[in-house]
Amino acid sequence: MKNKILIAITFLSVCYANAQSYFGYLNDNYSGVHSVINNPANIVDSRFRSDINIASVSGLLTNDYYGAKFGDLFKSDYDFERDGKQYPTDSNNFLINVDVLGPSFMFNLNKTSSLALFTRARSITHLSNISGQALNDIQEDINENYHVSNQNFSIAANAWAEFGVSYARILMDKGQHFLKGGLSAKYLYGGFTGYAKANNINIDYNYTGDPNTSTTSSSGYLESGNITSLDDFDDPTENTGSGFGADLGFTYEFRPDYSNYQYTNKEGGKSYHKDQNKYKLKLGVSITDIGSIKYKDAIINTYNVNTSYTDAEYDADPSFDNLYTKLSETKSVKFKLPTAVHLNADWRMNKRFYLNLNTDFSVVAAEDKNSSYINNNVSLTPRYEVKWLGLYVPISYLEYSGLQAGFGFRAGPLFVGSGSIVSAMLSETQALDVHLGLKIPIYHSKIKDIDFDGINDTDDNCPDVAGPVENKGCPWGDEDNDGLTDNLDKCPKEFGPTENNGCPWTDKDGDTVLDKDDTCPDVVGAVENKGCPWGDEDKDGVTDNLDNCPTLFGEKDNNGCPYTDKDGDKVLDKDDKCPDVVGTIENYGCPVIDTKVIKKLNDYSKSVLFDSGKATVKADSYANLDSMVAIMKEYEATNFSIEGYTDNVGNPEKNLELSAERALAIKTYLISKGISENRLSSQGFGAAKPIASNKTTAGKSANRRVEIKVVQ
Prior knowledge:
- GO terms for molecular function: calcium ion binding.
- This protein is mainly β.
- About 10% of the residues lie in helices and about 35% in strands.
């Protein structure tokens, strides 16, 4: 006989399930309209002008109870219950999901925004927290006693359709940093819903071989939504519901080499090559399936299952109302969408090879009644990607099924893949999935511009080297090698500094001061006066830079200053030999020396005594010599002759020599005291020119003399 509660559980244990749709494919930059499934932001700045999905489907089995090899499933004598390996625990789990993307398409509204319209059919069924030992004990036909205790499992099956629109736009474009966001709004049409939630259910089955005496005893509570018995769980009571849902996502791209993908557009601005991926690292975050579906006509019943019945009674009427005591009944069932958070990182290793890390986290708890959820997973997917071909190898860790490896490819309009096929073929697996689809991709055309300068190669005079439109695609040269390109150089053939727009500095007036530094560039001037000519303020013919008296009219030979007459004797200082003493014009501005002064000089000179027979002056005579110095300094314009004489005693030649030496001695002393040598002369005459008789002693004494005379 059958136990109807656990038979339904056994039915669900072999169902297919899905934790994530299109494993490995959605991260491809050429997934197009499919990218709205995980992150609606991805449709903007894509590699498509438009992408049209004809039909595609994805399904995945994952559970933690059964395991099998992929090849064994195709054996004619393979029995899943008998040959499949079982992993019973106190809490086993199963999921089933089918995801069909119907006719859908995306297109660009403008340079910064895109739109997608999509249709989608989905079905999710799950069994959560069921005793694996109980499943192991129960077969299709039960011919022995068994006991199940303290079960709190939940079962849910939902199918619905989505009619959605996605809008995405670029939120930030700052060269290296690029951000886009997207939102999907969905109208939900509920096809069917059904769930059962067990609370501390215990079952004892006593098998006797006779339907009338084989009995089932149970206790606990059961809540069911839109189903009358577990026998019809795979086909819940027909009714429909409706609701609304939403997806929200953002994608950031790090573009360190963004300038390599820019070109000059027709308007002269900067645009990106739309047919190329520009990022080094792409990060995405999204939350999907926000919303719910309400079934207004569905019924929720709560039952007390503390009862006992025979197999014959069950076969006559297996409904919950017949077998159990109904505690409450309410109308309307609300089904919450399988809300999930997705995190994605895509590393572009080089032009064609990528490495993707993706994580999916369920926001809905398995314990929630009538819940639909994805099981958490992490996947690492290396892939090869070009416009018409993509190859990807997803390696994933699923919450229930563990580590899985798969393979998939995209070839133009066709894509086929599986996130678990490699694991299933190599070893026993607890997950199996497949996805495939057919679409019409309309790619952005590649600009035929090898050097990325925005000019079609057929019109580019330098197709291998980037250059501006104004120079027909060639880089600007620097003919004169002055560091300023010819388009900016006003003198492209002459070497010149950048600050003068590439032209050499000139000197129009030829005064050796460059015009950039010349305050008077049109007039010859002096370097010291910043290229301007010196002025002559007093108009005396001496320029101010040379004029010691620039504000007084003066003489050129006096450095522009007027001549002075300090002593006021009407002899200008330049001609006045005694500028500080009043003199006469006839004596060159010096006072005229009179006979009294000359007599005084001679009186002093006669008082000068010499050592006997020598030319050395005695010390007692220095005072007289100093008096002579004072007089001579007073008459600075007067020149003097110093004459020496002797008597006639002795050798005339020696007397002549001695007289000359004594005159010279006095001259030397006067010079040492500041009298100019030019004013003095000395001469010896010996015994010549006596002034008295040499026959007397007095006469001889008078003849031995030194006389001072004025030289006119």
